[in-house]
Amino acid sequence: MPIKKSELYSHLWKSCDELRGGMDASQYKDYVLVLLFVKYVSDKYATDPEALIEVPEGGSFADMVDAKGNKEIGDRINKIIGKLAEANGLKGVIDLADFNDEDKLGRGKEMVQRLTNLIAIFENPELDFSRNRAEGDDILGDAYEYLMRHFATDSGKSKGQFATPAEVSIVISKIIGITPETRQDQAVYDPTCGTGSLLLKTADEAPRGLTIYGQEKDNSTAGLAKMNMILHGHPTAEIWRDNTLTSPHFKKKDGSLDTFDFAVANPPFSDKAWSNGLDREHDEFNRFEYGIPPAKNGDYAFLLHLLKSMKSTGKGAIILPHGVLFRGNAEAAIRKKLILHGFIKGIIGLPLNLFYGTGIPACIIVLDKENAASRQGIFMIDASKGFMKDGNKNRLRKQDIRKIVDAFTRQLEIPKYSRLVPLSEIETNDFNLNIPRYIDSGEEEDLQDIEAHLRGGIPEKDIERLASYWQICPSLKSALFTPSDRPGYLQLKVDPGEIKTAVFQHPEFLAYTDQVKDRFAGWQLANTPILKGIKEGDRPKGLIESISEDLLGRFAQVPLIDKYDVYQHLMSYWFDVMQDDVYMIVADGWKATDKGEPNFDLIPAQLVINHYFKSDAQVIEKLEADREAIAREMEELAEEHSGEGGLLEEAKTDKGKLTKMSVKGRLAAIKRDWDAKEERQVLNDYLKLIEKESAASKKVKQIRRMLDAKVDSQYVKLGSEEVRLLVVDDKWIATLDASIQTELDRISQVLTVRTKQLAERYADPLPTLVDEVEALSMKVDEHLGRMGFAWK
C-alpha cells in the first residue's frame, strides 16, 4: 500500500535528523533534496528507455544503496550524483553538495554511519515513487514543497528565497488569468524564481501545459528550482542562473527583453543592493521609462522589469512590501505614471508575518497590459485579517485563498473587504494606494449608552445591530425583549440564564436550523455516490475541487453562515484525514485489510465497533463506569483519612501512595494492636476497594480483548460495499455533518452572548446603584454605632 502523504512528509523530515549538528537547517536542503531527487528519478525513470531523464549505469539510487557502510561512501555518492548530472545536463545543478565534506558530515566512521543511515531512510520500501503518484497529482512535488517550507522555517534565518508560501502562490496563479483553456504555447516567466514554487503553482492551473521560464541569481537555489521542475513533471522548464536586473537572460534577437504571456515574481523586499553593477540612468533595456527607482530600494526596479517582460496582452503579479503603495519621492512619481497608464489592475493586502525571513506585511500588485487603456479603477482587497497561526508564522487558510480569488476574479464588492476604487478617488488621494484609505476593515466600535446607564433599559439601536438574526427569526426579538417605559429602549423579557434555551427552542430558529441541515443533506445526497464511486487511478485533487465547489455553492445564500467557513471545515478535514484516505483508495481500492492486517488508517477500529459491536462497547462502558465509581470511593476514603493523624497515613509508601502491598503490610503490623481497631476497619475497607477495582479492571481487559478479537475478524469479512459504507457514511459524512452543527452552535452562541452582555451591562442603572450604596452605608453606620463608634 502506498505511504500516506502525511507519513511521507514525516518520513522525509526524519532524514534531516541525521544531518543535525554539523550544519544549520539552511544547508540540509543541499543534501536531503538531492537524495530525494536521485531516489525519485531512479524509481520513475530507471527502467523507462523513453524517459526524458536518463538514469545511467553507476548513477542511480541503487548504486547509493550498494555504497552503504563503505568507508569511501561520501566520495562514492559524489561520483554517483556526478554521473546522473552529466547524463542529463545537470552539472552545477544537482552536484553542488559535497557528500564527502568532513566538516559537515563528520570524520571516518561518523560520516559512514550518518550517510548510511540517511540512505536507509530513503531505501524504505514504502518510499517507492514509481507507484506513489496518482494521475494528475504530484505527491513527490508536494513533499518537496513541504520540506522547503520547513527548511525555511527551521533555519531561523532570512531564507525567503527558498519558496513563496504555497498559499500565496495559489492566489497569484488563479488571479492572473491562467485557466484550463490556457494553451501550451503560452509562457510564464519569473525573474526571481527561487526554488520555482510560484512558477509551478501557475503551471498547475494550465492542465494542457504551460511553457516555463525562470531566472535566479543564487547558484544553489537555482539548482533546487531545476530539480523542483523535474520532480513536478516539467523537465523542459528553462531555469537560468544569474542576476536578473544586471544580466537578464531571456532576450529577443535584437537584444531587447523577451516578453511573456504571464509574469510573476516574489523578489527580495526593498533590496538595497539592486543597482550594483547597473547604470540606472541609462538602462539598455529601457525598463525605467516610467521613472528611476531609488538607488537603495529595489522594489520598483523589480516591478518595472516585470512590466517590461509582459507582452502587450500580458498579465502579471508581484509580491512587494506595503511601502510601494504610499512611499513618496521617486517611487510616488513612478506609481502615479503606472496608475495613469492603467497598468495596475488590483492590489491585495496580505496578513502580517506570512513570509519566511520577514514579518512585515506584503501585498500583491496585479498588472494587466491588455486592458490598461480602458481601466477606470483599481480593485482592492484587504485580506489582512484572514489567516491562521502556524507555529511562529501566519498562514492563509483554504477559505482565505478562496475568498480572495472569488472576490478578485468576479470583482465582488464585499463590505470591509473589497471594492473597485475609481481612478478619480485615487487621484484625490494624490495617487496614494494605501489600502486603509479606501477600505475600512475595522470592527464597529461597541459604544456605551450613558442614558441607559443612568435610567436603565437596553438601547434599541444595539438590538438592531443584530438585525440579521431578526430577519430570519422575526418573532424571536419580541420573545426576548419587551418595550421599556420610554421610547428607544427595551427590557429583557426572559431570565438571563434562559436566553440560550429561548433561542434554541424558538420555532423560527428551529426552522432555520432545519434549513441549514437541508442544505448539507442536499450536498450529501449529491456527493455520496461520487465519494463511493472513487476508483483506482482517480485524481484526488479533482475530487476535492468538485465536492468543495458544490458545498460552497449550496451555502452561498444561507443567512448568518459564512459559506467560506463551511468550505474551510471540508478543506481542513480533507487535509487532516480525507486526503490520505482517498490516496489509499485510488492506489489500492476499497480494502479493509492490507497484507492480511486490518487497515486501521482507512477504517479506525472505533468505526467497526460503532457499526457492528455497539452492544459490546456499551458493556465495556458500563464496566468502566463501575470501575471509575470504585476509584472515586477510594479517593474519597483516602482523602478522608489522610493527613496528620489520618487512619491511612501510616499505610502509605515512601512516595505517598496507597498500594495493596502497603495496606496489607500495615494491617500485619497492627494485627495485635487492640487500640487500632478503627484503623484496621478503614484499612480493610480500602483493601476491599483495591480488590474490587482490580477485579473490575481485569473484567474490562477481558471483555476488551474479546471485542478486539471480534473487530479484527470483522475486518477480514468486510467487502468493498461495506468498506464504502463505513468510510463514506460513518466516517467522512458523519464528521462533516458534525462540523455543520458547530456552525449552528456558533450562530446561537453569538446571539446568546451578545444579548446577555447587553442585559448585564445595563441591568443596574445609576439610581439603583446609588440607593444600594446608601443602604449599605446606613447599615455600616448602624453597626458602628452599636459598637460605640460615632464618626459622623
Protein architecture, described:
The chain has 792 residues and is α/β, with parallel strands linked by helices. It has four domains: 157 residues, N6 adenine-specific DNA methyltransferase, N-terminal domain (Ferritin), CATH 1.20.1260.30; 282 residues, 3-Layer(aba) Sandwich (Rossmann fold), CATH 3.40.50; 107 residues; 26 residues. Helices cover 51% and strands 9% of the residues. The chain contains 28 helices and 16 strands. It has a nine-stranded mixed sheet with strand order 3-2-1-4-5-7-6-8-11, with helices on both faces. The protein has a three-stranded antiparallel sheet with strand order 12-14-13. Strand 15 and strand 16 form a beta hairpin. It is globular. The termini are far apart. About 1% of the residues have low confidence.
Helix-strand blueprint:
Elements lengths: L4 H13 L7 H21 L15 H6 L6 H15 L14 H4 L3 H15 L15 H17 L10 H10 L11 E4 L6 H8 L6 E6 L2 H13 L6 E4 L18 E6 L33 H10 L1 E12 L8 H11 L3 E6 L12 E7 L8 E6 L5 E3 L2 E3 L2 H13 L7 E5 H6 L21 H6 L2 E2 H5 L2 H6 L3 H5 E3 L5 E4 L6 H6 L2 H26 L7 H15 L8 H26 L4 E2 L2 E2 L6 H8 L1 H27 L19 H10 L7 H41 L2 H42 L4 H21 L6
Parallel strand pairs: 1-2, 1-4, 2-3, 4-5, 6-8
Antiparallel strand pairs: 5-7, 6-7, 8-11, 9-10, 12-14, 13-14, 15-16
Helix pairs in contact: 1-6, 1-7, 2-6, 2-7, 2-10, 8-9, 8-13, 13-22, 20-21, 20-27, 21-22, 22-27, 23-26, 24-26, 25-26
